[in-house]
Amino acid sequence: MIVKFLGVGEAFDERLPNTSILVRAEEDGAGQSSVLLDCGFTAPPRFWANCGDPDELDAIWISHFHGDHFFGIPALLTRFWESGRRKPLLVAGQEGVGTVVSQALRLAYASVMDKFGFELKFLDIEPGNTFETAGFTWSAAQSGHPQRDLALRLERGGKSLFYGGDGPPTEQTLALAHGCDLIIHEAFSIEQKYPSHGSMRGAIDFALKAGGKALAFVHVQRDERRERNYEIKQLIEETKHMRVFMPEPEEELEL
Ligand SMILES: [Zn+2]
Ligand SMILES: [Zn+2]
Questions:
Q1: How many CA atoms lie within 13 A of 98 on its CB side?
Q2: Which end of the chain is more exposed for a tag (fewer CB within 10 A), N or C?
């Protein structure tokens, strides 16, 4: 599994694109496949810069219906259409994902969905259900974000990744993250400061309890990331028993 951070920013960062992660599985007998985790309004250009083939992407996961997590879909899919995509595309998320994404597409480009030369498929992945699709095993759990958010666990070939979307951890997301090779967690501030968001200290505690092998901080509040960089580095350095890092856009790692 190759994980590339296309964007690592929060909603309104002037420097960093919205958090969006491209997960690719190499040819290993089960075939190549790739999944995009969240696609906010500033994510599509980062995707295009990294993925020139309009037929490569197999699926998109939407953690929740905030603009910095799904408003990039109309641009992404309309460029797929422009570029002659033929392969079906799966958009997965919580119940209602098909209705919400279709509404966004129609608002942005009224009739473009009718012209797509590829099949657009939707899949509701609710907590408690496990799906085998697009080359991965998918399961979900609800985080503590006020706008209902589902964290995702993706597995393939004995490797596992957790992506929380937005919101502080819950008992359910802790169980979902158990033993993951990589935990990608929203960390809006160093200490818990905003009830609707996670923190770095909270994410470290969460990932250690879950037995995660590595932890990536994403969606860090823009001023916190800029003004408290030294404290963040110190916190990362003093964390034992697990690799912790705060990726930059374009950073890539292999699980
Ligand atoms: Zn967000
Ligand atoms: Zn949100």
A1: 10
A2: C
